[in-house]
Amino acid sequence: MFLHNKKMMYTVHVDEPNPQFAKLLLEQFGGPNGELAAAFRYFTQAWADPDVQRRDMLLDIATEELSHLEMVGQTLVQLLKGSPGEMLNQVESGYLGSLMEGQHEKYMELALNSGQNVVGGPGPRLTDSMGNPWTAAYIDTIGEPTADLRSDIAAEARAKLVYERLIMLNDDAGCKDTLGFLMTREIAHQKMFEAALDAIKPNFPPGKLPEKDNLGHTYYKDSHDGKKVSEKAAAGYQLAEQNSGDWSFQLVEDPAADAPKQGAL
């Protein structure tokens, strides 16, 4: 059951309308890394998760993402004040006629560069910044907790980076404050998903079937200049500081010569 609390999760305030920035912000409303995609991603995972604590966490975060969607939507409405979309609705004021006569040059330019804002009027639309409609293809839930949590961590990281870039592209103090809150909550969610993944023991590799032989610890040297690899490099190749366990790799200079024989898998 969902109940709508009219009090916003965080104060949304825009100092000055900015239809052009609203076009960019649509990315977080109806884009692949936006709030609606995040909410549906976590809802679909939660409803199928057998672990009660993890399911509650996913449902809580999914619900918060809907609150974030509301915040982004309200920010878009404030940014679109005085935009072509809003003004075109005021036919009785004569705005439409004067627009067609070449007046309101500023809004003519905005209309040409912010098409989806014009079509949507003064409200947000479920598109990304390029006008592509929202699609369920953004949801990549696969139904295995460790794989889904890794996807969630990456999704929150991408959302954080999008908000960070939006903040750097905007000089409106009120808008930056709102986006800063949203960006920080993405960091908090990423921490929660990291903790949830860490609580699953073991959590790697995903699924139930183990790796075969030692292929899971083999690094194929497919990028080289044709010269023989040094003895030191051939002794082992490490991607991290650890030199043992799951993160150790044996380097193979000639993958074709070392290919597993039929039946090895």
Any key phrases for this structure?
265 residues; mainly alpha; Ferritin; three-stranded mixed β-sheet; 50% helix; 4% strand; elongated
List the helices and strands and how they pair.
Blueprint: H1 19-25, H2 27-30, H3 35-48, H4 52-79, H5 84-88, H6 95-100, H7 105-113, H8 115-120, H9 145-168, H10 173-198, E1 218-220, H11 231-234, E2 237-238, E3 248-252
Helix pairs in contact: 1-4, 3-4, 3-9, 4-10, 9-10
Question: Nutshell version of this structure?
Answer:
By secondary structure, this protein is mostly helical. It has helices spanning 19-25, 27-30, 35-48, 52-79, 84-88, 95-100, 105-113, 115-120, 145-168, 173-198, 231-234, and strands at 218-220, 237-238, 248-252. The protein starts with 18 loop residues before the first helix and ends in a 13-residue tail after the last strand.
